[in-house]
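Retro notes - structure team

What went well: the batch runner handled both jobs without manual restarts.
What didn't: labels got mixed up in the shared folder, which is why I'm recording both outputs here explicitly, each with its sequence directly above its C-alpha cells.

Job 1
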Amino acid sequence: VPFVFLGRPGSYGSAGRHYTDRHRPREAALIDAAMDALTKRYRVGAWAVGGHSGGGTLTAEMLARRTDIRCAVISSGAAAFRAYLEARGLTTALAKPAEWFDPAASLDTVPADSRRRVIVMGDPRDSNVPFTTQTLYAEGLRARGHDVTLIPLERAADPRHHSLVDWAEAATGLCAHGESPAAIAAALTAMPDPPPRISN
C-alpha cells in the first residue's frame, strides 16, 4: 500500500521543538492539519494510521479528531496519558502535565464507525509505558462500542521492552491491506526478530 512517514514536530527533520511541543494540543493540531493537507494533495479517501510510543499517543488522539481513519494501530503508546503519568510517578516531575492532551479523556468524542478497526499493542513487560495503561484505553474504546483488538506482544528486545516499531509498521500495513485483526496478530507472532534499529 502507499504510505507516508509523518515525523512528529521537531523529529526526523521536521520543523519544531519536539521536547517542548510533544504531547501538547499544538502537536495534535499540527498533525491533524498535516493529515488534512496530505488528504487534499493526494486525494486520500481513508487513512490507516500507525504510531509507536508518542506516535501511538498521537494516533489515539487522531481517533477523536478525525472521521477518515479506517484503521489505527497504537503501539506502546500512552493512550491513557494521565494513567501513564500516574503509573510512572510523573504527574509533578514534568512541566505542566495538565496542559497535555489525554486521548483517554476524549473517548466519548471518538466518532462511531463500523468500518474502522483499532489495534492496541504493547509488550506486557514494558517498563516505559505500562501495558496496563494500553489496556485501559482499549477497554474504554470497547465499552463505547468500537471495534478494538488488544494484542499483548512479548517481542520487544530493548532493555525497557518498549520498542515494537517493526511490528507496528507491519501491523499498519496489514491492516491497510484489509487483513483481519486475528490474521494480523498471528503474523506479528510469527515475524522473525528484526535487526537492531538506529532509531525509532
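Job 2
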Amino acid sequence: MLINVNNSFSIFCANDVCIWMDPWVGTANYGSWAALYAESEFEKFIASNPYPLPDLVYISHLHTDHYDVDFLNFLKEHTDLVVVIKDFKDGRLRKRILEEVNPSEVICLHEYENYEFRGVKLMIVPQVSASSADTENQLEYDLDTSLIIE
C-alpha cells in the first residue's frame, strides 16, 4: 500500500515493513508551504495517523519539503530512526543528517544499487535532468532522487 500524505511525504507499508518517504508535516521553505499540521502538532499527527511508525525513512534531498529536521528529531524520540539516502558526491545530505538528527543509522546507497531491507527491495534513482531549459550542459546534476520499491 502506498499513501500520499502531502506533497512529497508518502508512506509505503507492506509485508510488515513501513517506509516513510520525505516526511514533513510542519511548514517548509521558510513558511511559504504549509502542511497538514504545525510543528507544535507532531503528536497530533502521530495520534491520527493510521499507519505504523517508520522502520525506514527515505530522504530524497535537502529541500525542507523533503528533509524536515524537526520532524525527524521528533520521530527519533519514538522509534529507532534509520535513514536511507543517495550517496551524493558532495556528502552534504549525509553530513547534515548526522549533525542535525543523528539517527540510529544512515544507509547511503549508490544510484541504481539494489538494497534489501526486511524482504523489500529498494533502489535509488537519480534525477537525470534539470528542470530548466538549456541547463543540461551547464551542470553535473546531483540534487534529487526517487525511490523504487519492490
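One thing worth noting from job 2: The chain has a mean pLDDT of 85.
We'll revisit the folder naming next retro.
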